[in-house]
Design a protein that fits this description.
The structure holds two protein chains of two kinds. Chain A is mainly α. Helix content of chain A is 74%, strand content 0%. The radius of gyration of chain A is 19 Å and the shape is elongated. Chain B is 40% helix and 4% strand. By secondary structure, chain B is mainly alpha-helical. In chain B, the strands form two sheets. Chain B has a three-stranded antiparallel β-sheet, with no helix packed on it. In chain B, strands 4-5 form a two-stranded antiparallel sheet. The longest helix of chain B is centred in the first third of the chain and has 24 residues. Classes of the chains: A mainly alpha, B mainly alpha. The interface between A and B is medium-sized, with 25 and 28 residues. Chain A: GO terms for molecular function: electron transfer activity; heme binding; iron ion binding. Chain A: This is Cytochrome C556. Chain A: InterPro entries: Cyt_c/b562 (IPR010980), Cyt_c_II (IPR002321), Cyt_c_prime (IPR012127), Cyt_c_prime_subgr (IPR015984). Chain A: Keywords: Electron transport, Heme, Iron, Metal-binding, Signal, Transport.
Chain lengths: 145, 312
């Protein structure tokens, strides 16, 4: 009986840690997006001066980041245990999840192709890209304690 | 055996008395004449602001509606809760399937008293415990604005609730415990108007407390942990603490809060997620002054630690 309890505890421990690295990796990956968006966001908020070249660099950074996205590798089945805000909906609707990421990539590519030339255009670009961030977070992320 | 008869007789009287008291106490209570008189004619332009502050579209537009579709309030969104599944009704101007045939008094009784046009108690999944704090004139403005929106045919399916929650009369007792038109947070004299304006938006039409405040065993808001965050009443996960207590938004400035409501970006440039996406999109339609007022209020309320249990 003790062995059984031990085995069950070990199994549940394994379930919660098996994807710990995967979860940390994808969080780092998402934080990279945050840092790049922040560079533009601080300009949009007026905290830093508008700098068209720096905006384009940040947008290209977002594009390079977005192209590295690999849904199957980053969100393997079962990687919703542990310290993650991934929603089970990701795996219930994996194609929808991937489509949301595609839409985000398209928005970033569109911005790189036609980068904003002034502050108002930057705000519009932030709105378009941020809208895709929010669309995916609305459906596929849940806050946990 | 006379004593037994006497006991049975007493018990019967007590039971009957309780039944009568319960029936009386659970009766729907409508607005009084004075409040109805304060409604006034209503102003559609002002009503649009209330409509956005209330975020009516979040639940009453068809799920996934975009752009103009969001003004088609056919309902149908399911809220899966511990009490059962509530289905947002059609509140479009359709006379049969929506609220097109409702008088302004019908509308005000629903918004401020949680009473439907047939005199039935409405379930507080419709957040009238917050709307009860609204000014009657704002309710009238909203009524007139909603008359400008399209009629959508088709009734939403009924709620799916188990016993005893399927007994509407019980909601009358619930209201005796939890329904109040008084503000939640009392501020000292001399509190800036911007904070009071924010209180009205947050505690009234914005109904932020319905999700962000934990509930007690009876399903009412724990006002001592106002906006401290809560286990999601609907769906999974938690709703964040938006007080300045530990785990909350202490490190957000008022400008950060207003900016988040406008753009959806947090101070770290993470973005809004979950059910808050629709809320934020509606808040983005308010004026900068209204968003600043909400922010000022959130910075002024008592701080609390998280109103949900820590992760095990």
């Amino acid at each position: 009986m003790k062995k059984l309890v031990l085995a069950i505890s070990l199994l549940s421990f394994a379930a919660s840690t098996a994807f710990a690295d995967t979860i940390l990796d994808r969080q780092e990956y998402m934080k990279e997006r945050g840092k790049l968006v922040k560079q533009m966001g601080q300009m949009a908020k007026g905290e830093t001066d508008f700098d068209a070249a720096a905006v384009l660099t940040a947008l290209k950074g977002l594009e390079a980041n977005a192209e590295k996205f690999d849904a199957e590798a980053m969100f393997p089945e079962g990687s919703l245990e542990g310290d993650t805000t991934a929603s089970p909906k990701i795996w219930e609707d994996f194609s929808g999840f991937k489509a949301a990421e595609e839409k985000y990539l398209d928005a970033v590519k569109g911005a790189v192709a036609a980068p904003p030339g002034d502050l108002d255009a930057l705000k519009a670009t932030m709105g378009t890209i941020g809208g895709e961030c929010g669309a995916c977070h609305k459906a596929y992320r849940i806050k946990k304690s | 055996m006379a004593w037994l008869k006497k006991l049975a007789g007493t018990a019967a009287v007590v039971v009957a008395g309780c039944a009568v008291a319960g029936w009386v106490l659970s009766a729907p209570v409508k607005l009084d004449r004075d409040t109805l008189a304060q409604l006034g004619p209503g102003d559609a332009a002002k009503g649009e602001r209330i409509f956005n502050a209330g975020g009516c579209t979040s639940c009453h537009a068809k799920p996934g509606a975009k752009d103009d579709e969001r003004l088609q309030l056919g309902g149908g969104l399911e809220l899966k809760t511990a009490f059962g599944t509530f289905v947002a009704p059609n509140i479009s101007q359709d006379e049969n399937d929506g609220i097109g045939a409702w008088s302004i008094a019908d509308f005000a009784n629903a918004m401020l008293k949680g009473v439907g046009p047939s005199g039935e108690n409405l379930y507080p999944a419709f957040p009238y415990p917050s709307y009860a704090r609204m000014k009657p004139s704002d309710v009238a403005d909203l009524y007139v604005f909603m008359q400008t929106l399209p009629a959508v045919s088709g009734k939403a399916p009924p709620h799916k609730l188990g016993f005893p929650f399927n007994i509407r009369r019980g909601v009358g007792l619930w209201k005796r415990l939890y329904l109040s038109d008084k503000p939640v947070i009392e501020f000292a004299a001399g509190t800036p108007d911007v904070v009071l304006a924010g209180r009205y938006l947050v505690e009234g039409p914005g109904h932020c407390g319905e999700c962000h405040t934990p509930r007690d065993a009876g399903g009412g808001s724990r006002k001592g942990e106002w906006l401290a965050g809560a286990v999601a009443a609907e769906g999974e996960g938690i709703i964040p603490n938006i007080t300045t207590g530990p785990g909350g938004i202490e490190d957000w400035s008022a400008a950060d809060i207003a900016s988040y409501l406008e753009t959806g970006f947090t101070p770290d440039f993470d973005t809004v997620g979950g059910a808050m996406v629709d809320v934020q999109e509606n808040m983005a339609r308010l004026t900068p002054d209204d968003r600043a007022a909400i922010a000022a209020y959130l910075k002024a309320i008592p701080p609390h630690p998280n109103g949900y249990p820590a992760r095990k």
